[in-house]
Amino acid sequence: MKHLDDQEQRIIRALIRNPRSSDNRISTLTGVPVRTVSRKRVRLEQEGILSYYASVDMQAKGTGRFSTQHMLTIKFKLGITHSQIVQEIRHEPNVADVFSELIRDSYIAEIEGHIALVMVVEGESDSDVAENVQGKIIPSLQKNHGEDSILELKTIRLLDPIRRLHNYLPMVNMKEGFVVENWPDDAIFVE
Predict the structure, then answer these.
(1) Around Cβ 42, how many Cβ atoms within 10 Å?
(2) C-alpha distances in Å from residue 18, one per residue of 23, 39, 44, 107, 156
(3) pLDDT tens digits, residue range 112-127?
(4) What does the pLDDT look like over 63-109, one tens digit per residue?
(5) 58, 122 in Cβ contact below 8 A?
(6) Among 177, 181, 188, 189, which Cα is nearest to 55's?
(7) pTM for the complete prediction?
(8) Residue 24 burial (CB count, 10 A)
(9) CB–CB of 84/145 below 8 Å?
C-alpha cells in the first residue's frame, strides 16, 4: 500500500475535478509548486495509481445507441482458475472487437470459492442482450473452458448509475463531464 502525502492528495483531487488540467493550473489550485506537480503526477501515473480514460454514455441520455444494461454474473465450475481467465482474456480475438461493443465493464470475481466473471452488457433491448450473451459471450467462454464450464448465470437489469469510481455521482455532482465547481474538496475521496 502506498501512502499518499498531502501534496499528492491535493494534486489527485484537482485531477478528479478535471483530469485535463495542466500542471500549471493544478499548481495554482493546490498551492503545490509546478515542478513538484509535474514530478509527482508523472510518478503517480508510472506507478499505476493515476490513470485516465474517456467514458461515452451509450444509453438514452447519451448517444442513445443502447437502451438497456444488464449486469451478468457467470460462475465457473471448480478447477477453472483466475490465471486461466486472464490468459483467455489476453488471447481471445473477440475481446478486441466483438466484446468491446457488447461489454461496458467487466471484472474477474470469486463467488463461494468459484472463479466468476461479472460484466455489464449493453444492448438495444433486453432480448438483444440475451441474444448476445447466449449467442456470443457464452459460446466463447465454453470454447475456451469446455461445454460444462459454466455452473450458473445470473442477470440483473440496471437502471441508472449512482456512483462511479468513488467520486463521480452523475445525478448529483457532474455537469458537462466534470465535477461541479461548488463540490467540496473534502467530499472528494482520495485516501
Answers:
(1) 12
(2) 12, 18, 16, 26, 32
(3) 999 999 999 999 999 9
(4) 888 899 999 999 999 999 999 999 988 888 877 777 888 999 999 99
(5) yes
(6) 177
(7) 0.83
(8) 11
(9) yes
Residue 66 corresponds to which amino acid?
A: F
What are the residue ranges spanned by the domains of the chain?
6-55, 68-158
Which sign, positive or negative, has the C-alpha torsion 72, 78, 81, 85?
negative
DSSP summary character for residue 74: E
CATH level 3 topology of 6-55:
Arc Repressor Mutant, subunit A (1.10.10)
* Residue indicated by cell numbers 490465471: 83
Residue 42, phi then psi, degrees to nearest 5: -60, -45
Residue 12 and residue 4 in contact, taking contact as beta carbons nearer than 8 Å = yes
Which residues fall within 8 angstroms of residue 181, CB to CB, at 6 or more apart?
Answer: none
Residue showing cell 474517456:
54
Determine the topology of domain 68-158 in CATH.
Alpha-Beta Plaits (3.30.70)
